[in-house]
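Figure caption, in words: inputs first, then the predicted bound structure.
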Amino acid sequence: MTDARAIDELRTRFQTDLASASTSRDLQTVRDRYLGRKGGAIAGLMKQVASAAPADRPTLGRLANELKRDIDQALRERRTAAGADRPSADAIDVTLPGRGAAPGRRHPLTALREQIETIFARMGFTVLEGPEVEDEYHNFEALNMPADHPARDMQDTLYLADPLAAETASGPHDHPRTLLRTHTSGMQIRHMETHAPPVRIIAPGRVYRRDNLDVTHTPMFHQVEGLLVGEGVTMADLKGTLEAFLRELFDPDTKVMFRPSFFPYTEPSAEVFIGCLFCDGKGCGVCKKTGWLEILGSGMVHAAVFEAVGYDPERYTGWAFGLGIERVAMLKYRVDDIRLFYENDLRFLEQFPA
Ligand code: DAH
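Bound structure (3,4-dihydroxyphenylalanine present):
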């Protein structure tokens, strides 16, 4: 049973509830309590009206409908006033750009190696790879470093365990040993052994030395070897090509200096320097006050090397170079500890161009 007074009381109760609702969640609770389809007060009221005496039904029905409309409108107004249609401060702002997954990127040494490859590829060089496990012949002997050469010393070279050593009464040195290549220069031999001139190659890759870890040494690092052989190739070609390469790698205004040096597999040999990137040649801590930074070793291929691979040294000449990728990276990006390249700390790696 219901009557007009009960409907009025329901209106009063709603107004009290609405007044004490403060959050949008409270408002939703009030809405459910009164307008909920099942168990809401209005739904209950409508059922009672339906079962009222036929004579009272029209009036009660009108009052009940008015109340329902007023409740709905009051709730809507409160919601708009409270800004409940706008997202609250802690809601997700769907208009913000997405946060994007952080993609992996190339390691700075890989990116630099690829940059070097690109520069030489444009000049017509082919990029080769070769074995890191090498034999003494390719790493030393054929490069004019005979058995008693100091570079072969156990101090510098990592030899692999020798399976024949135990059986050989006279010791491990009477047959060729296997080692981890100490430089990429063996790739000169490997390529010329299997290819006739002309030759234009670079060979990047890992090399290994018996060095203890410190700020400038790691037992594994990376080099790029270069070799060009043909008829009438001169030192001017070497200078022009390396100068063009270094100016593209560093800066178009880079100064390049060639200084006489010695390597067993080149004659003459030259160390190549660039004007210090940090003091503009004035002299600073990085260039040890000289104004120059040593970048690579190079020279005209030694006749003994051509003889080892069966090239006629009377007919062919050529030049070669070898450069350390870590050294270039340290100078180019001013990194003062080589070990940082191998620690895979994202705070370090993220600072490099991908
Ligand atoms: N192999 C030398 C090194 O490991 C670098 C080098 C010097 C390579 C002169 C060459 C060269 O091809 O001609 O330090």
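Residues 183, 185, 225, 263, 266, 297-299, 320-322 surround 3,4-dihydroxyphenylalanine (CB under 6 Å).
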